[in-house]
Design goal:
This protein has 345 residues and is α+β, with helices and mostly antiparallel strands. It folds into 2 domains: 90 residues; 232 residues, 2-Layer Sandwich (BirA Bifunctional Protein, domain 2), CATH 3.30.930. It is 42% helix and 19% strand. It has a 7-stranded mixed β-sheet with strand order 1-5-6-10-9-8-7, with helices on both faces. A 3-stranded antiparallel β-sheet has the order 2-4-3. Helix 1 packs parallel to helix 4, helix 2 packs antiparallel against helix 4 and helix 5 crosses helix 11. It binds 3,4-dihydroxyphenylalanine (DAH). The site of 3,4-dihydroxyphenylalanine (DAH) has 12 residues, from strand 9 and strand 10.
Length: 345
């Protein structure tokens, strides 16, 4: 046994420790290099055959070699521990930031909300107040008080969505904004000049011209001596204000249970400017909504005297109005969140 042999054992041991690839591997390396069956441990057992002086000197050399091996193992353990922690943190990192290319962009209101706001401003400018009502309604407000009794054929046109609540078919998602007329008349005495915008719901399959949820704007005027002419003038004024002075509106006889007489109002087709196209079926006109003089039965439902008061009401789809002004072929894009569409308004 000489210094060269001890030196070789130390060098071999050091390279084994330094090449340990993981903490587990390092544990195995320590057993191999420093354990009971290691080369260095076997050297100790051979010390017995040396003279006492040699034994002391060689023993010291072996001990120093062992201490250096242990120090190298400790150092490797610290390095591997740090490396493994770093790798785990990297693997488990949660990236909570979303990096978008370019500067951040600001969102804006949807086209429907913009249209609703614009219409509200327009009517407020004409002296109207804005009222709202619940989207979940009772049969009485949605139908009965509006002169649409049970079994009335007008009900079938509404494709109502009912709740399983109370009596069967007693509670529903409102199919139009007209029930808010009733609520307004119940809570404030005339004169009333009010608009009532809001969402309505129908059991419709979505297609180019229908969506199961859409927005309507209802108007109600109740005062003394209100005439059909006042109504026609009001409708013409707001349609021109919204679509521009080149637009004309007209009334056609129609039927609604809650108004008498009733009419449908139409505007010049914005797609062809009135010359006739596919959208307006060649007529040059597009139907926007309904209107009429408040029916005496509706006044009776809210306890107003039809001899003293008269009034008109109208209702139309806000979505339809926006669709006309902006030439939107398919209504469904109004509900999709396609940024290529939304970004245009
Ligand atoms: N509520 C009707 C509908 O949804 C629209 C309507 C027609 C409202 C005539 C009115 C009106 O106020 O007078 O089809």
């Amino acid at each position: 046994m000489d210094a060269a042999e001890i030196d070789l054992i130390e060098k071999t041991g050091l390279s084994r420790i330094e090449s340990a690839a993981s903490l587990d591997d390092l544990r195995a390396a320590e057993t191999e290099v420093l354990g009971k069956k290691s080369a260095i441990a076997r050297l100790n057992t051979r010390l017995g055959s040396l003279s006492p002086d040699d034994r002391k000197a060689v023993g010291q050399v072996i001990n120093h070699a062992r201490a250096r091996l242990q120090a190298a193992a400790d150092e490797r353990r610290v390095a591997l521990g740090a490396e493994e922690r770093r790798r785990r943190l990297e693997a488990e990192r949660l990236d909570l930031t979303e990096v978008l290319p370019g500067p951040p962009t600001r969102g804006h209101l949807t086209l429907i909300t913009q249209t609703r706001d614009e219409l509200e401003d327009l009517f407020v400018g004409m002296g109207y107040a804005v009222a709202e009502g619940p989207e979940v309604e009772t049969d009485w407000y949605n139908f009965e008080a509006l002169n649409i009794p049970k079994a009335h054929p007008a009900r079938s046109g509404h494709d109502s969505l009912y709740f399983e609540w109370g009596e069967p078919e007693s509670t529903l998602l409102r199919t139009h904004t007209s029930p808010v007329q009733i609520r307004v008349m119940q809570t404030q005495p005339p004169p009333i000049y009010s608009i009532m915008p809001g969402k309505v719901y129908r059991k419709d399959t979505p297609d180019a011209r229908h969506t199961p949820s859409f927005s309507q704007l209802e108007g109600l005027v109740v005062d003394r001596g209100i005439t059909f002419g006042d109504m026609a003038g009001t409708i013409d004024t707001f349609t021109r204000a919204y679509f521009g002075p080149g637009m004309r509106s007209r009334l056609r006889p129609a039927y609604f249970p809650f108004t008498e007489p009733s009419a449908e109002f139409e505007v010049t087709c914005a797609i062809c400017a009135g010359s006739g196209c596919r959208t307006c079926s060649g007529t040059g006109w597009i139907e926007l909504g309904g209107c009429g003089m408040v029916h005496p039965n509706v006044f009776a439902a809210v306890g107003l005297d039809a001899e003293e008061w008269s009034g008109f009401a109208f209702g139309f789809g806000i979505d339809r109005l926006a669709q006309m002004r902006h030439g939107i072929a398919d209504m469904r894009v109004l509900l999709d969140n396609d940024i290529r569409f939304i970004g245009q308004f």
